[in-house]
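My main concern about presentation is that the manuscript never shows what a single data entry looks like. The format is easy to grasp once an entry is in front of the reader. For illustration, here is how one protein appears when written out as sequence plus structure tokens:
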Amino acid sequence: WKESVQRLRVGNQSRREEQENLLLWQRSVAAVFGVEEATPAWAELSQAVSPLREEDRDELEKCWERAEQVLYGRDAGLNGDWCEKAALLAARIDLPRLRFWDSLRPRNLWPWITLFALAGPWVVLGQESPPTGAAGKKESPIALYREGNFEKAGQIWGEAVRKDMSDPVTRNNLGLAWYQIGDKERALANALSAYLISPQTETVGWNASIFAGAADQLDPVIRRLLEGSWASWLTARAGVFTWQIGLVAGSAGVALGIGLWLASGYFAGRRKVLFPAAVAVGCVGLLGFVVAGSALGMYGRLADARAVMIVDFQPLRSIPTEVETQAEKGYPPGSIARLEKSFLGWSKVRMPNQDTGWIRTENIVPLY
């Protein structure tokens, strides 16, 4: 903690050096309070710092928010007194020095000596063939991310995403790794996928908004989804699949209400029960249908299970024939398309204006 603050005090730092030192400071603070996350949000960290005094918690929150603005926002650098505040906080909660000689006292050593004396022969017998190589040793992508090895962490998360495309946590982490590497389009694609699947997951909505703001080109449907309107607030409550279930359930409720209403006409003796039930069920179903339909209307073509995002500036190519030569048409990275089919490393996509063409599969990212 103190070392990272001292590094930040050095003048004439490049923006990348300052960001690396800020990431080191965040990892150090999280480690002090025992938070095991690649990029912990303040909402999670605040639970771990509850033993601190209230004024220290408030000061640490301000320092953390300022660091987030410098790392992911458009602010150029830290305030002049930020380092002083961070250093004072580190001094106030400084951990006591360990006295190593305490662990070497006889009363502390005798239990271990006895244990090794009794268990030693059995351990030797159990290790006749010690394992060789690095088999079984699995690197933690979160640990690699904290060390600044973003490419290696991204490779591990990428393998996990290929096995399970519907895990919002892994896709969110993969987006963070791509953002740190500098590939803003792939970062946005993975963060958007996590948002479409589970927007209520921790930091997913926050990261999607940050990556969208940093993108060079932003599809209008993404901008509409993330802007601060009541409908976008609605879509942030649940994922696409949940709203699709709600739409089906609402339709079923309306149909059931109509059925009960018709039944009340045929069974006059039960009309007092069937008619109120028809009104109640029909109204609830209609409300669910309208709410779910409004949410899905905000998603637009993003609700398509075969939606993909173009992440590289590569043109769509047509198949040449005897009559026409191969045609090419470019679309900017960040454009949303629909995947129609894939063949030998190529994918055929359809754009919103009904243009179709082939593009390399590695130049698109599926959203589901």
About this structure: The chain has 15 helices and seven strands. The longest strand covers residues 336-343. The chain has four domains: 2-92, 151-217, 240-302, 304-366.
